[in-house]
Amino acid sequence: MLEPFLDANRIEAGCDEAGRGCYAGPVFAAAAILPSDFYHPLLNDSKQVKEKDRETLRTYIEQNALAYSVAMITNEEIDQINILRASFKAMHLAIAQLKTKPDFLLIDGNRFDTYPNIPHQCVIKGDGKYASIAAASILAKTYRDAYMQKLDE
User: Is the pLDDT higher at 143 or at 22?
Assistant: First the structure.
């Protein structure tokens, strides 16, 4: 079972990316702020969820999150700044687009470029530990998959 918060007394945004290990295309990142009663039995790390269930979760997250956003960095920019920097930049863009400003950031992974004026904690395999990071994982993955499918067409 995923933890709802690291600290329930603040507004936490979970952040994750999709596309960092891919050979082609952009990197997407998402940020999600969830209400205290948010729950879906299928919510987990996007890599552990079936494709059809990810689509169900995407809709559920979009309808029930307090705030969410998704950002993309193109493959051209990735080639200029490298994939790690592009992942951090996409996360920063997603955080900046949130309609509610978080007090704290939960970042999936082991490092992150500090976002101005918002403390953060990196959580290794955080998308399997915290609901907000799992929700961001689902959003980033489904938005990237949809984008790549359009490119394929």
Answer: 143
- How many domains are there within the chain? 1
- CA-closest candidate to residue 28, choices 138, 149, 114, 105: 138
pLDDT on residue 114: 97
- pTM assigned to the model: 0.96
Provide the residue range defining the domain that includes 128: 12-152
pLDDT confidence bin for 19, thresholds 50/70/90? very high
Q: Is 132 exposed, middle or buried (0-12, 13-18, 19+ CB in 10 A)?
A: buried
Question: Which has the closest alpha carbon to 101: 66, 141, 125?
Answer: 66
Order of all β-strands in the sheet with 104-108:
67-73, 27-33, 12-18, 104-108, 120-123
Residue 129, in any domain of the structure: yes
